[in-house]
Amino acid sequence: MRKLKNSELDRKSLEEFKASEKTPIVIVLDNVRSLNNIGSVFRTSDALLIEAVYLCGITATPPHRELHKTALGAEDSVHWEYFKNTEDALVQLKENGFEIYSVEQAENSVSLENFETDASKKYALVFGNEVKGVQQKVVDASDGCIEIPQFGTKHSFNISVSCGIVLWDLFSKMNYRK
């Protein structure tokens, strides 16, 4: 077995990426403070052709040197918008036909493995602050909550890990389990 070189991976150019059909998912970052987490979300979003990343509240925006360290240029390929208030982002998403799911531990949440996607729907996934999670008023404005099952002693995953887990699960359900 031989490790492939980057030149052998047949990745899209920036222009090809921008012209590509996107996965109908928007990521909403609700007051995420870590620039490394934000950059990682951009990089994962690029890998899975995610439609957009909405940066809300205290969430930093490109261009930023620390964000770029983990995004590695994905902040240039993935469409992003900034909203002072997360609720304003949700209003826009609902007006554009998105179903909104906060990724949060909440009453009546749906465990990720039981969440069913529908090819005719567009999804917005809200990920919250590293300490406080998704704001309650944002949870209230969501169509539901998705929870990632956990079996150890910790109460949560890092936000960039949570985003990767949920995006891959939804992406695979939307693209491979038709």
Radius of gyration: 16 Å
Distance between the termini: 31 Å
Strand content: 15-25%
The strand count comes to 7
Mean of residue pLDDT values:
96
The low-confidence parts are none
Class of secondary structure makeup? alpha/beta
Secondary-structure element order, N to C: HEHEHHEHEEEHEH
**Fraction in helix:** 25-40%
Give a verbal description of the structure.
This protein is an alpha/beta fold. The protein is 35% helix and 21% strand. The protein has a seven-stranded parallel sheet, sandwiched between helices. Strand 1, helix 2 and strand 2 form a beta-alpha-beta unit. Helix 2 packs parallel to helix 7. The two termini are 31 Å apart. This is TrmH family RNA methyltransferase. GO terms for molecular function: methyltransferase activity.
Question: Key terms for this structure?
Answer:
178 residues; alpha/beta; 35% helix; 21% strand
How would you sum up this structure in a few lines?
Helix content is about 35%, strand content about 20%.
Provide the fold topology:
Blueprint: H1 14-19, E1 23-30, H2 35-47, E2 50-56, H3 65-71, H4 74-77, E3 80-83, H5 86-95, E4 98-103, E5 110-111, E6 122-128, H6 136-141, E7 144-147, H7 159-175
Parallel strand pairs: 1-2, 1-6, 2-3, 4-6, 4-7, 5-7
